[in-house]
């Protein structure tokens, strides 16, 4: 592998880490309803667990309510049960063929707990970025050992990877701060 390939690989993997963080942060609810909140809730469908979005339409009714419309009438019960038993703390209400999912207002204590979860998730993303930096630096050391590049080239490459790492860590901090502000807004 060349220095450029290592840098490119590190950057693409750090970008994937950032995308994973964005996905994780989107799952943390802020008191406002959004359809993505039910993405990781699975329901038993003909013997296999599938996401709710694959067996029903999930729509936004208003700022505090979701509507789940199962494609098959017999799926309403299992979907309602899956939402109720999920770790989201939601209480779905069956309304004929559809299921209404009201979003409860967040208490101050719950908001603080959620900010701790957000910070922990952000820290995990930073650790992942730093691990990618370490892997890249080890790859550069291997190139020096194999005499493919000089020590000066290695030092320059490590500086570039450090700048890349700093940029992604700043981006993680920015996303965490935005989510914190969003959670603490009443």
Automatic annotation (TrEMBL):
Entries under CDD domains matching the protein: RRF
Localization annotation: Cytoplasm
Keyword Protein biosynthesis found: yes
Record domain Ribosome recycling factor: where: 21-184
Gene3D superfamilies (UniProt xref): 3.30.1360.40, Ribosome-recycling factor (1.10.132.20)
Any one annotated GO CC term: cytosol
Entry GO MF terms: ribosomal large subunit binding
GO biological process: cytoplasmic translational termination
A Pfam family recorded for this sequence: RRF
Keyword Protein biosynthesis belongs to the record: yes
UniProtKB keywords: Cytoplasm, Protein biosynthesis
Superkingdom of the organism of origin: Bacteria
InterPro entries: Ribosome_recyc_fac, Ribosome_recyc_fac_dom, RRF_sf
Cited function: Responsible for the release of ribosomes from messenger RNA at the termination of protein biosynthesis. May increase the efficiency of translation by recycling ribosomes from one round of translation to another.
Family statement: Belongs to the RRF family.
Protein name per UniProt: Ribosome-recycling factor
Species of origin: Corticimicrobacter populi
Classification lineage: Bacteria, Pseudomonadati, Pseudomonadota, Betaproteobacteria, Burkholderiales
Gene: frr
């Amino acid at each position: 592998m060349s220095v450029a390939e290592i840098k490119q690989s590190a950057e693409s993997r750090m970008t994937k880490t950032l995308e994973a963080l964005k996905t994780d942060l989107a799952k943390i609810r802020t008191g406002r309803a959004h359809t993505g909140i039910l993405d990781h809730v699975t329901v038993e469908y003909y013997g296999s667990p599938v996401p709710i979005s694959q067996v029903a339409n999930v729509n936004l009714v208003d700022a505090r309510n979701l509507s789940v419309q199962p494609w098959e009438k017999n799926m309403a019960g299992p979907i309602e049960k899956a939402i109720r038993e999920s770790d989201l703390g939601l209480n779905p209400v069956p309304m004929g063929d559809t299921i209404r999912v009201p979003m409860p207002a967040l208490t101050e204590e719950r908001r603080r707990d959620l900010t701790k979860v957000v910070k922990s998730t952000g820290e995990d993303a930073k650790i992942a970025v730093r691990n990618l930096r370490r892997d890249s630096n080890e790859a550069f050391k291997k190139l020096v050992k194999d005499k493919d590049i000089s020590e000066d080239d290695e030092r320059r490459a490590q500086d570039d990877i450090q700048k890349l790492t700093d940029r992604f860590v700043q981006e993680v901090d920015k996303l965490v701060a935005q989510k914190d502000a969003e959670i603490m807004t009443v």
